[in-house]
Design a protein that fits this description.
This protein is an alpha/beta fold. The structure holds S-adenosylmethionine. The site of S-adenosylmethionine has 21 residues, from strand 2.
Amino acid sequence: MNEQKWKNKIYYSQCWEDPYVLLEGLEINKEDKIISITSGGCNTLTLLLKDPKEIIALDINSAQNYLLELKISAIKHLSYDNLLAFLGIESCDNRINLYSLLKNDLSKDSQEWWDNNTKLIAQGVIHVGKLERYFRVFSRFILPLIHSKKTVQFLFTQKTQEQQYEFYNKKWNTWRWRFLFSIFFSKKLTSNNGRNKQLFKYVSTNNITDHYLIKIKNSICIEPAKNFFLHYMFTGKYDKSNLPLYLRKENVPIIRERINRIQIVSEDIATYIKKNPKKYTKYNLSNIFETLSVEETHVIFKDIIEASGYNARLVYINHLVDRTFYEELNNIIVHDIKNEDLLNKQNMAFFYKKIHIDYIK
Ligand SMILES: C[S@@+](CC[C@H](N)C(=O)[O-])C[C@H]1O[C@@H](n2cnc3c(N)ncnc32)[C@H](O)[C@@H]1O
């Protein structure tokens, strides 16, 4: 349906969707067969922590799947310390040598792609997506024009919520912050340099930064020390004591043991679901509907209902564009409003208008 919208390059080398929200929203059990949009691969790996039967990691863009293959091979074959070094959490001048231990486990296409892109491996693959590069420019060159290193570090120290609000109001929320943030994350600059332009096709407003400024205020004021998205965005790296879930020391062996339950498919979701009328039970759909019209979105919902069993659950996001199913499906699929409200409040990935949690009756 929309293959031409995504080029064969890495747009996301990490997932920018909150894994806690996904784990809670999907309510995964041992019988679940999940379709999970690959993107940076992190959240598909994280889903294994809940012990599902099978995961189809699906992405229309093969490069995103090549990245997941590489992350899988690294989890399978490297020690924990080497895994963190290889991916880019720790510095490392040995990544190409480590790659030689991993490449034989990749599919032919993936191996060929990475052989042609070893410079990305040398940089640490979690840093090489279009969005991660854009965030790096922000943390290296823009944020230092707004706040000192000390102020940024202070943001992530433990404080009461009251102290955090006070810090935001008195220290952080300066005119420079609002001005430079609004320029850097404007629709024009972000769609040209940070994300895929197609994601903005249905965004009707030119001012997207008022929305981001309100959302990021919440993330700055509510437990920023726990927010690894915010930490990466502001510092260009992770705090090792607060890594994304799939990279935590206690979680890696569990993921490693279950990793063969992931099957990787490079295809548009609409095509895949039609060709595989198997009963899937859970869907991690990211914000794939953002590039689609309301009608196209509705057709995918109908196909998903066809391909699913009762009680199937879906988590998907509206970033800047409102997308969900038509009312005519209300007697089959419903919004889990109670969970939605709770999880939207908890959500650490602050960019989004709304996270939807739906289930099929
Ligand atoms: C939709 S993007 C969004 C990522 C992030 N949340 C954001 O707002 O920028 C996530 C992934 O979905 C994939 N994708 C988009 N449309 C798809 C489709 N119809 N079928 C399968 N994958 C799709 C993209 O290739 C990308 O890797």
